[in-house]
Amino acid sequence: MITSIKNRSLISVTGEDSENFLQSQFTNDIYKVSNKNIQISAFCQHQGKILVLVWVFRMEDSIILSCVDELTDLLLSKLNTFKFFSKVEFQVITDNFFIYGLIGENMDSSYKFYENLDILVSKDKIDSSSQKYWELSCINFNIPEVFLISSEKFIPQALNLDIDELGVSFSKGCYPGQEVVARMHYLGKPKRRLFHFESMCEPTIGDSITVKESESLRSSGKVIRVAKIHSSYHLLGTLEVKHSANQIYLNNDIKKPLKIIDA
């Protein structure tokens, strides 16, 4: 299946220092990005909270960054703040391309994303299905996304980015927030992880996921990704791990129970 992806920007990164500069800013190992794969990486603030989640890949002589549209200005502003005298330039090229998610198929020019998911970046418009099927596939694989409402809310571990080093390399050099992220990896244990939920009531990204038994002053978790399929909603959200067997609700409403899928 070929699905449209309409909510992402594309930023071209060029200049002789581009690779080294991005390596010093993102959580994953930029040196491992090839011409055939897309890498998930996080751009964090100094407390280790994710500002922007990015896809990184190579296209011709450029490194391409992709994030959700509403975080493009924030990403560019922060990167330009840190570049100092580095020889690196950023250019938004979103209007020149269409982005498609491939589910269970690939093309010669597509990039491997995760498992049976690929990404196609094309100058030509092609017939495609709704983006909701791409969202559902990402939810099924516990692949997170960060929007403006969820920026600076989560450390990488809360979004499962440390598992199998999906979005974090623990053997690369420094980046903003690395001390916090590394300390959690080596000395701590995340209280919250991502879970796939199903709901009969409509959730919104940023909604609270609540458990009555939770002693947290905040909600037990947050909704970070949503897809409506037929009459039900599938969502990806954080949850305190110790409460995964308890009754879970959306926004503390007992009329809006959530069911964990494949816990």
What key attributes describe this structure?
single chain; 263 residues; alpha+beta; Alpha-Beta Plaits; Elongation Factor Tu (Ef-tu), domain 3; six-stranded antiparallel β-barrel; five-stranded antiparallel sheet; 4 helices; 15 strands; 14% helix; globular
Q: Quick check: average pLDDT?
A: 95
- For the termini, the CA-CA separation is 26 Å
Question: In which order are the strands of the major sheet placed?
Answer: 10-13-12-11-14-15
What is the SS-derived class? alpha+beta
Query: Which outline best applies?
Result: globular
CATH architecture of the largest domain: 2-Layer Sandwich
Number of strands: 15
CATH fold label of the largest domain: Alpha-Beta Plaits
The CATH class of the largest domain: Alpha Beta
